[in-house]
């Protein structure tokens, strides 16, 4: 069953997929690679099955490998200015001017 646009929400320049879809897709890629011993073409095949863009799924798999320590790298961080603005927004209901 393919993922439909109704399951996603518009976010920035693209669609934000539910975390459950991300977890399932990454797990499917990992399991398929383990079962078949293949890496080439697995992400694209599963992306097509789930109705995802292959580059989106490739990014999710790469980030999952980083998070598990299987690949060098780190999680993207939000800038301090952005975090500060978010804290003020959440704590006050409206952003304050500094």
Set out the fold topology.
Elements: E1 9-11, E2 14-16, H1 19-36, H2 42-50, H3 54-67, H4 80-92
Antiparallel strand pairs: 1-2
Helix pairs in contact: 1-2, 1-3, 2-3
Plain-language structure description:
The chain is globular. Helix 2 (42-50) packs across helix 3 (54-67). It has one domain: Winged helix-like DNA-binding domain superfamily/Winged helix DNA-binding domain (Arc Repressor Mutant, subunit A, Orthogonal Bundle). It has helices at residues 19-36, 42-50, 54-67, 80-92; strands at residues 9-11, 14-16. The model has no long low-confidence stretch (mean pLDDT 78). It has 98 residues and is mainly alpha-helical. It is built from four helices and two strands. Strands 1-2 form a two-stranded antiparallel sheet. Helix content is 55%, strand content 6%.
Unreliable sequence segments: none
**Rg on CA atoms, Å:** 17 Å
Under the CATH scheme, which class?
Answer: Mainly Alpha
- Helix and strand run: EEHHHH
Count of separate structural domains: 1
Q: In the CATH scheme, what's the topology name?
A: Arc Repressor Mutant, subunit A
Overall shape: it is globular
What structural category characterises the helix and strand content? mainly alpha
pLDDT averaged residue by residue: 78
Helix content: 55-70%
- Strand order within the widest beta sheet: 1-2
Largest sheet: 2 strands, antiparallel
Q: Look at the structure and name the CATH superfamily.
A: Winged helix-like DNA-binding domain superfamily/Winged helix DNA-binding domain
Q: In angstroms, what separates the terminal alpha carbons?
A: 50 Å
Q: Kindly state the number of beta strands.
A: 2
Tally of individual helices: 4
- The second-level CATH architecture is Orthogonal Bundle
